[in-house]
TrEMBL record:
<keyword id="KW-0732">Signal</keyword>
<dbReference type="InterPro" id="IPR031680">
    <property type="entry name" value="Hepar_II_III_N"/>
</dbReference>
<keyword id="KW-0456">Lyase</keyword>
<feature type="domain" description="Heparinase II/III-like C-terminal">
    <location>
        <begin position="416"/>
        <end position="646"/>
    </location>
</feature>
<dbReference type="GO" id="GO:0042597">
    <property type="term" value="C:periplasmic space"/>
</dbReference>
<keyword id="KW-0574">Periplasm</keyword>
<dbReference type="InterPro" id="IPR008929">
    <property type="entry name" value="Chondroitin_lyas"/>
</dbReference>
<dbReference type="Pfam" id="PF07940">
    <property type="entry name" value="Hepar_II_III_C"/>
</dbReference>
<feature type="domain" description="Heparin-sulfate lyase N-terminal">
    <location>
        <begin position="98"/>
        <end position="331"/>
    </location>
</feature>
<protein>
    <submittedName>
        <fullName>Uncharacterized protein</fullName>
    </submittedName>
</protein>
<dbReference type="InterPro" id="IPR012480">
    <property type="entry name" value="Hepar_II_III_C"/>
</dbReference>
<dbReference type="Pfam" id="PF16889">
    <property type="entry name" value="Hepar_II_III_N"/>
</dbReference>
<dbReference type="GO" id="GO:0016829">
    <property type="term" value="F:lyase activity"/>
</dbReference>
Length: 683
């Protein structure tokens, strides 16, 4: 069975009857779509829309535009001609054929992600800001040349850039933002070349994008973040440009956003895709649409804004004191807008600044800056809210109360201990994220990882126990399979198998069901006991107890593993460390973990009955000891693999401890362990 047929077979298994009928109908729609390749609509508006956003170039933070634009682990120079169909990583080029016939899965034409990242046109609003701030005609000329090049080389429904509706809608949003920054209607009155560009080139392509967006919605098992982007892009465009269909488009898209913000989030605002980095990406769609609805006199419901506030509240809680988020699930560095005036830019913190403006919440403002930094209003928020928004932000008080633990019934448990000192450099935090959540959203759980009962641990804003990341989606299948696997997470893996069946790069079958047996949180301790059924097919069960004793700075993990079958099973307990963590071995099962950016250490004790191995950057016989800090970026790190063989019809209990210790306590502990080893060696 070829790779394509395998994928199709497993994809079919994940579909309902209604979805199978829908997918069958796509063949007919695809055939009809070919007839529209190269379609060039004749579009005119009665008047060009005035800016909807309150942009004042004199008040924005001064930003120096760089023509070197980051594209994952590479850059492109937009001062040189852009090949819009090139994967700059492999040098392969996607063909100019009917969009739906383009192969984006096998990699034979390269990685579509590389091509799409360039074609989102995230640099256009940056050029628009530079033009408005400086008045330098070169920036406007470059803006026109880049757009004209894109229009000429991407005829309607031709090539990879018309394949995915999410890409179409991100371009729509960036054109909307650029139009508002430029004050395109005002500029068209004084610049004849720009007016001709707007009327004869830009508006027809915007209209094409709206038509495509409305005609190609994501349905059934594909209706995840893609559907959100489709509704958001179309709502924003239809609220601004008065095309004949705009009223119906706007109503359709607004109803969709109202529905999806509820469907795709839990009762407490947690995104159901179980991909933490995606939260900033998805929330931007809801946020920008909300801002546009208010400005256009078509506000969203109270239920919508209440859910948006819940989403922001979850973001505020799940960031550690350094603004780092718990990296569960997929991440691809995706951004809706790239309006950064600080590097590195933290879009989660930018969203909390937006939340402080919209809701006046002190917690949002407090968590919009890393501890020790002063909360500031950034460029993206200035463009969305203007000087009035900045005044609202500055009027929000900042609380200095330490944050505590928060246990979410949806399966995300944040154990936290903060100690506040007068000197910001002395601020201390122990942050633990325990995961007993479902695999992901909808039948394919596309962006979830097989990470049931895993955990992360940050100390003083530094990553000690880590989620290794994502690295890639469709291409590099060996790396994709590793990073989403159970073995690549801080949990128990049995017989080297995943807790669910991976049927494709973005397709899971036979989802495990987590069950939380008990949870508690008080001033003395946090504790969660949970299990899952992912290994029932192996006739095994894993139950894990997470316990954080705050007075002792002690985090313990108790694993109960039961093999009720007739075959011995390999049990592996995985500990993955951040790339800057040093691991010192004291004995077979005792280690000291240190990080160059905090004086405190972590004392790790692994259950004595386990055999331990330290692995760094290994690909054979097992792929272990890797960390991906961003999409298509990868580096060696340290992993401890602890294992045992569990005989048939046997149960074992394994207890591990992570204790945060002070610098003065490190040397005596190391000395004590060294002496113990010497005694054992003499014996």
């Amino acid at each position: 069975m070829t790779h394509t047929y395998q994928w199709f077979y497993h994809r079919l298994r994940s579909m309902t009857v209604s979805e199978i009928m829908f997918r069958s109908g796509e063949f007919i729609r695809k055939k009809a779509g070919r007839r529209r390749m190269g379609w060039q609509p004749a579009v005119r508006l009665a008047h060009l829309p005035e800016p909807l956003l309150p942009f004042d170039p004199s008040g924005t933070p001064v930003v120096t535009f760089s023509p070197e634009q980051p594209i994952f682990r590479h850059t492109i120079d937009i001062n040189t001609p852009v090949d819009w169909h090139l994967d700059i990583n492999t040098g392969r080029r996607f063909p100019l054929i009917y969009a739906k016939d383009v192969d984006v899965r096998s990699g034979r034409w390269g990685s579509a992600k590389y091509a799409w990242e360039i074609n989102r046109l995230l640099f256009l609003p940056q050029l628009a800001v530079q033009y408005r701030q400086t008045g330098d005609q070169r920036f406007l000329t470059q803006f026109l040349e880049l757009n004209r090049s894109w229009f000429a080389e991407n005829p309607y429904l031709t090539g990879v850039n018309w394949y995915s509706n999410i890409e179409v809608n991100i371009r729509l949003i960036n054109w909307f933002i650029s139009w508002n920054i430029l004050d395109a209607s005002g500029l068209a009155q004084t610049n004849n070349d720009f007016r001709l560009f707007v009327e004869t080139e830009w508006l027809p392509v915007i209209y094409q994008h709206c038509v495509y967006s409305r005609s190609n919605p994501s349905y059934h098992s594909s209706a995840n973040n893609h559907l959100i982007s489709e509704y958001a892009g179309l709502f924003i465009a239809a609220s601004f440009w008065a095309f004949p269909e705009s009223p119906s488009w706007r109503n359709y898209a607004k109803a969709g956003l109202e529905r999806e913000i509820q469907l795709q989030h839990s009762a407490r605002g947690i995104n159901r895709e179980e991909a933490a980095e995606y939260i900033q990406f998805i929330t931007d769609f809801f946020l920008i649409a909300n801002v546009v609805g208010d400005r256009a006199g078509d506000p969203f419901s109270e239920a919508y804004t209440a859910k948006l506030k819940q989403i922001l509240a979850y973001i505020a809680q799940f960031l550690d004191c350094g603004g780092t988020f718990p990296r569960y699930g997929d991440e691809d560095d995706g951004r809706v807008l790239l309006l950064d005036d600080a590097h590195p830019h933290n879009n989660f913190q930018s969203l909390l600044r937006s939340g402080a403006v919209l809701f006046g919440e002190p917690l949002f403002k407090q968590q919009s800056a890393s501890r020790g930094d002063v909360p500031r209003f950034d460029l993206k928020n200035y463009i969305l809210f203007g000087a009035a928004g900045q005044s609202l932000f500055e009027a929000v008080p900042v609380t200095s109360e330490p944050l505590g633990s928060v246990l979410y019934d949806e399966g995300h448990y944040i154990f936290r201990k903060q100690e506040i000192a007068d000197d910001p450099s002395k601020f201390r935090e122990i942050y633990i994220h325990a995961d007993a959540a479902p695999l992901g959203f909808l039948s394919i759980a596309a962006h979830g990882h097989a990470d049931a009962l895993s955990f992360l641990m940050h100390v003083d804003g530094q990553v000690f126990l880590a989620d290794p990341g994502t690295y890639s989606y469709q291409t590099d299948p060996e790396w994709r399979n590793y990073f989403i696997s159970t073995r690549a997470h801080n949990t128990i893996c049995i017989d080297g198998q995943n807790q669910a069946f991976q049927a494709g790069a973005l397709l899971w079958l036979d989802h495990y069901k987590p069950q939380v047996l008990s949870s508690l949180s008080n001033d003395q301790a946090d504790e969660v006991v949970a299990t899952h059924n992912g290994y029932a097919r192996l006739q095994c069960k894993h139950q894990r107890t997470f316990r954080f004793e705050k007075a002792n700075d002690l985090f313990s993990i108790r694993d109960l593993v039961e093999n009720y079958g007739q075959q011995a099973r390999l049990v592996e307990v995985m500990f993955h460390f951040g790339p800057n963590v040093r691991v010192d071995t004291l004995s077979r099962n005792k280690f000291v973990l240190s990080h160059p950016d905090t004086e405190r250490r972590v004392w790790l004790t692994i259950a004595s009955g386990l055999r331990t191995e330290i692995m760094t950057g290994q690909t054979e016989p097992l792929r272990l000891g890797w960390y991906s800090e961003g999409f298509y970026r990868n580096q060696p790190t340290t992993t401890i693999r602890a294992s045992l063989m569990l005989d048939p019809e046997r149960t074992t209990t394994l207890t591990h401890q992570l204790e945060v210790i002070e610098p003065a306590d490190v040397d005596p502990l190391i000395h004590k362990q060294t002496e113990s080893r010497r005694v054992l060696q003499k014996q």
